[in-house]
Automatic annotation (TrEMBL), chain A:
InterPro entries per record: AAA+_ATPase (IPR003593), ABC_transporter-like_ATP-bd (IPR003439), ABC_transporter-like_CS (IPR017871), ABC_transpr_MalK-like (IPR015855), ABC_transpr_MalK/UgpC-like (IPR047641), Mo/tungstate-bd_C_term_dom (IPR008995), NA-bd_OB-fold (IPR012340), P-loop_NTPase (IPR027417)
Name the record gives this protein: Maltose ABC transporter ATP binding subunit
SUPFAM superfamilies: MOP-like, P-loop containing nucleoside triphosphate hydrolases
Gene3D superfamilies: 2.40.50.100, Nucleic acid-binding proteins, P-loop containing nucleotide triphosphate hydrolases
Domain ABC transporter intervals: 4-234
Top-level division of the source organism's lineage: Bacteria
Organism, scientific name: Mesorhizobium ventifaucium
SMART domains attached to this UniProt entry: AAA (SM00382)
Keywords: ATP-binding, Nucleotide-binding, Transport
Similarity-based family: Belongs to the ABC transporter superfamily.
Automatic annotation (TrEMBL), chain B:
Keyword Ligase: no
Superkingdom assignment: Bacteria
Boundaries of every ABC transmembrane type-1 domain copy: 78-276
TM regions (residue ranges): 12-34, 82-106, 113-136, 156-177, 198-221, 258-276
Protein name, entry field: Binding-protein-dependent transporter inner membrane component
């Protein structure tokens, strides 16, 4: 069990800076998920914690000890890889016991710990099989088994579920959640799947281009995103962004609107705006509701609708030709070409500065 | 496109026919060698003008084999060759795979430059370095049971040591190692393995195919050694099989005995090949990484 602390951590490959100064403090026993789009540096950051990549600058502490220069085995971490990385020439038993064998553990200790791991992961019957005789989910279980036998201070997961099919992924997700409650060890988990991030994490770290965009509890990030990137990254379908004009500015509240949007008052949340300037209004598709003609805040025409049973996702074209996605919590038929008016709770909307606007002023 | 069953059968037949013909081209010299080894010289030479050359007909006996054993110490030559070849193959697999492991997995200064130099040595023919190498080995020291010696001529080691490391074998290993899933190496590192443990617990057990390939290539090179042992070994007791062939090419070439000798020295090659072929097939296991 250990805390993990990254202070001003940077990583460069030649002249290209991949990680541009990251500060994260992970508490003992915490489950932290790194999310971000491909190439954001989340896997690199995890590999730096594991000791598989050098740290160009900054310090990394595990359990209060600076480990920058330590070999992977001296850091007390265990890692589960996306491709399972179990040894094909060993049986499941030998795979799980690999770390113990390397550490020179006695036969009795190995037997006991392998049995314990097999019991936790419910794979006692697979111990004498070879990896080629296992399914993808079972292989990943072996990889997890190998990680838990050494009782590491920190578990690292590098997209462990992305090679599994959807049904299995859900099972394994729940299993990892259960494992986490059972072991109570610090876990760092990298994924690009926001469902995994939202369901597993105590805290999520959203990364983009090697920088931390926001750190916080899943619901905090969902309801109070620090910036437009986080707002758009979490939630499915993703948040709608409307280009709006700032009509009035009154302390913490701005009056905004455009051709398709009736003027509304939205909290600025201390972000910088300029009267008569541009801004971006973020509204989650789930917050939109259809209303009778004349009462709507947004006006559009149905372009396409998808009925999912529990939900209907409607693609609308607004008056200014921009697209808007609405997700209604019911099964309803929307014919393409029909005019539709929508409303939403303005307290749930987010106003973001227009980056282009900020740069020019 | 649907497969036409008739057409498919015909194509299969033609394919097998072509393959059989090609196989025959390779087999005929062997068949000729083995058949001729049982025939007296007069019949052997007469048969070369007809298909009888490939058939065990006429005056068949083991006389050529007795003759070959009388003319040359066949057993000693085969033993020498097997000893030199076997030792070189084993040492070569060890040394070259260790070198390749370093080139493929470790990070050190000058690694890539050195690897390109190693690969560049492939284009240098042995004949060009034979004389400098001879001068070198003739002056090398050796500490044996009876004290310090200078010069390695007329030994087994002079036939072994210069052939252990070679660019081709290292290159084969490097290419194979680089194609192994990197996660397996990383996983073993994270699990606490040092590089030596990664080498013998993870990389080597997964290297069956390349070990078999490198061993076969090295075996063929070593078993067929002629020029090098000819110039560094003058004593009969260290002579390998190919140099021993010279015993049969004197005033009157005894062709039947030559064929008998060649048949005898081919046996270890066949045994070695059959053994490794099994190892080769057994080593083709599925990987533990999702492909």
């Amino acid at each position: 069990m250990a805390e993990v602390s990254l202070k001003g951590v940077k990583k460069s490959f030649g002249r290209v800076e991949i990680i541009k100064g990251v500060d994260i403090h992970i508490n003992d026993g915490e489950f932290v998920v790194f999310v971000g789009p491909s190439g954001c540096g989340k896997s690199t950051l995890l590999r730096m914690i594991a000791g598989l990549e050098d740290i160009t600058e900054g310090t990394l502490e595990i359990g209060g000890r600076v480990v920058n220069q330590l070999q992977p085995k001296q850091r007390g971490v265990a890692m589960v890889f996306q491709n399972y990385a179990i040894f094909p020439h060993m049986t499941v038993r030998e795979n799980i016991a690999f770390g113990l064998t390397i550490a020179g553990a006695s036969r009795q200790e190995k037997q006991q710990k392998v049995a314990e791991a097999a019991r936790i992961l419910q794979m006692e019957h697979l111990l004498d099989r070879r990896p080629s005789q296992l399914s993808g989910g079972q292989r990943q279980r072996v990889a997890i088994g190998r990680a838990i036998t050494r009782k590491p201070a920190v578990f690292l997961f590098d997209e462990p579920l992305s090679n599994l099919d959807a049904a299995l992924r859900m099972d394994m997700r729940m299993e990892i959640g259960r494992l986490r409650r059972q072991l109570g060890t610090t876990m760092i988990y990298v994924t690009h799947d926001q469902v995994e991030a939202m369901t597993l994490a105590d805290r999520i770290v959203v990364l983009k281009d090697g920088q931390v965009m926001q750190i916080g509890a899943p619901m905090e990030l969902y309801h109070e995103p620090a910036n437009r990137f986080v707002a758009g990254f979490l939630g499915a379908p993703s948040m709608n962004f409307l280009n709006v004009d700032v009509l009035e500015l009154d302390g913490e509240v701005a009056m905004v609107g455009n051709q398709s949007l009736e003027p509304i008052r939205v909290a600025t949340r201390r972000r910088p705006f300029r009267k008569d300037g541009k801004a971006i209004l973020g509204v989650r598709p789930q917050y939109l509701r259809p209303v009778h003609s004349g009462k709507g805040l947004l006006h559009g025409i149905v372009a396409h609708a998808e009925r999912l049973g529990s939900e209907t996702v409607v693609d609308l074209t607004l008056r200014d030709e921009r697209e808007l996605i609405a997700a209604f919590n019911e099964d309803k038929v929307f014919e393409p070409g029909v005019a539709l008016e929508l409303t939403f709770d303005t307290a749930l909307a987010h106003l973001f500065p227009d980056e282009g606007e900020l740069q020019t002023h | 496109m649907a497969v036409n069953p008739d057409n498919y059968g015909l194509r299969l037949f033609v394919r097998y026919l072509v393959l059989c013909l090609i196989a025959l081209i390779f087999i005929f010299p062997l068949v000729f060698m083995i058949n001729s080894s049982f025939k007296p010289d007069s019949q052997l030479l007469a048969d070369t003008s007809s298909l009888r050359a490939f058939l065990p007909v006429g005056d068949i006996s083991l006389n050529n084999y007795f003759g070959a054993f009388r003319r040359a110490p066949v057993g000693l030559f085969v033993l020498n060759s097997v000893l030199v070849t076997g030792t070189t193959v084993l040492l070569s697999l060890l040394i070259c795979s260790l070198a390749a492991f370093s080139f493929a997995f470790l990070r050190w200064k000058g690694r890539d430059v050195l690897l390109s130099i190693v690969i560049a040595t492939l284009i240098i023919p042995f004949e060009t370095i034979a004389i400098p190498l001879l001068l070198l080995v003739s002056k090398l020291p050796w500490i044996g049971l009876d004290g310090l010696h200078w010069g390695w001529l007329n030994t087994y080691r002079v036939q072994i040591v210069p052939w252990i490391a070679d660019g081709l074998t290292i290159f084969l290993f490097v290419q194979y190692f680089k194609a192994l899933p990197g996660e397996l190496i990383e996983a073993s590192r994270v699990e606490g393995a040092n590089w030596w443990q990664v080498y013998y617990r993870v990389v080597m057990p997964l290297s069956g195919p390349v070990l078999a390939t490198a061993a076969i290539l090295k075996f063929l090179v070593m078993y067929n050694q002629y020029l090098w042992p000819l110039i560094v070994v003058q004593q009969e007791s260290y002579r390998p099989v190919m140099v021993g062939l010279g015993y049969f090419f004197q005033l009157n070439v005894a062709w039947g005995e030559v064929m008998a000798y060649l048949t005898l020295i081919t046996v270890p090659v066949l045994i070695f090949y059959l053994l490794l072929q099994r190892a080769f097939i057994a080593s083709i296991a599925s990987t533990g990484v999702k492909g």
